[in-house]
Amino acid sequence: MSNGDSPDSTAPLLAARDLTKAHGRTEALRGASVELRTGEILAVTGASGSGKSTLLHCLAGIVRPDAGSVTYAGQRLDQLPEKRLSELRRTDFGVVFQFGQLIPELTALDNVALPLMLAGSSRKDAQTRAGEWLERFGVRGQEALRPGELSGGQAQRTALARALVTGPKVVFADEPTGALDSLASEQVMTALVHTARDAGTAVLLITHDAQVAAYADREVRLTDGAVAPAGVTA
Ligand SMILES: Nc1ncnc2c1ncn2[C@@H]1O[C@H](COP(=O)(O)OP(=O)(O)OP(=O)(O)O)[C@@H](O)[C@H]1O
């Protein structure tokens, strides 16, 4: 169906090709390639130290690879100047880490309102939208609490609301349930998957947990800094 004049709807939204990255003498990535399509939920699994977080950092434009390319919506992320890169991270990407990394001094509401205010919304508008998002993630009645007063699950759902409130195209989630029990983990994953599906947001999800990976559309496994061929699980 595609012709030379229309954009290629089958092109991946985000693609890493042959990435290498060393931390000192440790080669964290050794020729890793991976693709993420619009709206796709992709799980990246692999043993501890296999390079999952380093891959996520390269794809999210947080770290530059030593070699290889990262292409996002047709542009080479690994070659963008830092100013453009941080702008793009703010507008198009959301991130969630294992320990939500909410700002401890701010209430749950203000943590979620902050990215909207950084993008130019007034405090009042930002707080109204933040409240709606917290409600969506089942953090109701806790808006005025600070992160230290929230349960682990509530804090992670607040972190998800913060990552999604600006309507990013991609959410990068690095072990978002790693510190949670199985019930809280299920609630966090259900909230993430429902919201991402509704909004057409792609998710790159790093996890050790097969039950968490099962929420994804597809799984790739990293072994020693490279993606194992499909079907290889060792
Ligand atoms: N900042 C750093 N400095 C030095 N070595 C690092 C750094 N970050 C990662 N590494 C090393 O690079 C390798 C890959 O690390 P990475 O965190 O990407 O793996 P991972 O698969 O995410 O591991 P885990 O599941 O344990 O979080 C490991 O050997 C790690 O020790």
UniProtKB/TrEMBL annotation:
Domain ABC transporter: 14-234
Keyword terms, alphabetized: ATP-binding, Nucleotide-binding, Transport
The UniProt record lists the keyword Transport: yes
Short name of any one Pfam family annotated for the protein: ABC_tran
Record has ATP-binding as a keyword: yes
One Gene Ontology molecular-function label: ATP binding
Name of this chain's protein: ABC transporter ATP-binding protein
Species for this entry: Streptomyces coacervatus
